[in-house]
Amino acid sequence: MPTILRVDGLRVVIYPNDHMPEHVHVIGGGGEALFNLHCPDGPPVLRENYGFSRAEVAWIAAELLPHVGRLCEEWSRIHG
Question: What is the value of pTM for the model shown?
Answer without folding.
Answer: 0.94
